[in-house]
């Protein structure tokens, strides 16, 4: 017999032990002991089948990405993720799918030190909404509105890969090189939340955002909120060797600036702080690249080797 709603919850979703949770999954609401000297940050993201992941995405990848995109938001705020709730809509009870999903979810939450404390389970088209809470010292969260004139613009990792991975997942493009194919699909399905980068940059960054809708659109959020402008030097955009190998330069720039789903961190900081930050990142085996600078003239401009270049800047929007 198929599992009922309550057996399903009891079998697949548990709250990890810890003093910070006074009451976890199983009652009408969870009770958490929020440290009295910290601010609580809350973020939520929904992943819908056919919109946020192709229909053929496996359960483990869906769970992985659900955690990554939410933790990425808290990394962008300079917060430490702590607790999560999961709203899960399922077309039917498929125990193979559920056990694969629950295992991957547990592993990812554990990897980031997050405890699942509740949620809701309903019938419907496959959809997941994870809400992740986090904490940070009062007044120390990184916001979009803090960019300052002459700041450097810094980007972690590489961008554009997830967009090329999506081409592969949707069979819009074929890449036979197994290593490249595998790398690009991983970048799409298993984005890295840059929490380790965040732990270092949070003491220096003036503004930050995670790149979910393309560098151009997300940088526009920072400059609009900070009431300034920016220049990106296209030749400095960090592009993976897989992306460079398979795309011509203008397409690579377009994927980097307007493709989505990379979940890298985009931040601004003082030029005088950059050498220290770069050194600390390097010591932890992490990297980031300066891609441009903040200016007083509003709007986002792209340069290539010092010359202005016109580039479409529209990133992903649902409506
Ligand atoms: P209620 O009817 O009071 O809303 P539910 O029967 O929906 O309670 O949920 C029972 C318990 O299981 C609650 O503690 C809820 O937070 C938890 N829960 C339900 N679905 C999930 C889920 N997908 N993941 C984690 N916890 C869940
Ligand atoms: Mg309920």
3D structure, described in words:
Helices cover 34% and strands 26% of the residues. The mean pLDDT is 96. Strand 4 (80-90), helix 3 (95-111) and strand 5 form a beta-alpha-beta unit. The relative contact order is 0.16. The chain is built from ten helices and 13 strands. Adenosine-5'-diphosphate (ADP) binds next to strand 4 and strand 5.
Share of residues in strands? 25-35%
The run of helices and strands is: HEEEHEHEEEHHHEHEHHEHEEE
What's the total number of strands? 13
Query: Looking at the structure, what is the overall shape?
Result: globular
Strand order of the largest sheet: 8-10-7-11-9-12-13
Detail the poorly predicted runs. Answer: none
Overall residue-averaged pLDDT value: 96
Quaternary organization: single chain
What is the CA-CA span between the terminal residues?
Answer: 41 Å
Please give the largest β-sheet.
7 strands, mixed
Number of distinct helices: 10
Ligand catalogue: adenosine-5'-diphosphate, magnesium ion
Q: Into which percent range does the helicity of residues fall?
A: 25-40%
Gist?
This protein is 34% helix and 26% strand. With 319 residues, the protein is α+β, with helices and mostly antiparallel strands.
